[in-house]
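Structure (tokenized):
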């Protein structure tokens, strides 16, 4: 659950690009107290990290984005994990449907 009313504390955090709203990027930032929503100008993100589900290492100070580094390896890892979960669910649903027709 995201608490979009709480501030993102100063420091370095892992963030995921959740969505874009016009020229703004909405990030889901992992903090010690849980997920926080953090909105920044899309142009503040590294060019290779300007896509949905991109994983970034961000530095925040006084509710301002100080630095953002795209983590390609983690982005690919999470995408692969999500695809694996989807495939497992698809296989499970397919086998349940086969069982229904037996």
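Design, position by position:
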């Amino acid at each position: 659950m995201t608490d979009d009313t709480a501030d993102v504390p100063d420091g370095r955090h892992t963030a995921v690009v959740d969505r874009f709203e016009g020229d703004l990027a909405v990030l889901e930032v992992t903090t010690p107290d849980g997920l926080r929503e953090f909105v920044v100008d899309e142009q503040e993100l590294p060019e290779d990290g300007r896509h949905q589900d991109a994983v970034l290492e961000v530095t925040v100070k006084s509710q301002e984005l100080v630095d953002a580094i795209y983590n390609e390896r983690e982005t690919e890892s999470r995408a692969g994990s999500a695809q694996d979960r989807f495939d497992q669910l698809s296989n499970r649903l397919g086998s349940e449907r086969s069982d229904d027709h037996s």
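Reviewer-requested clarification: The beta strands are 2-3, 11-21, 24-31, 34-41, 55-61, 64-70. The chain has two domains: 2-70, 72-102.
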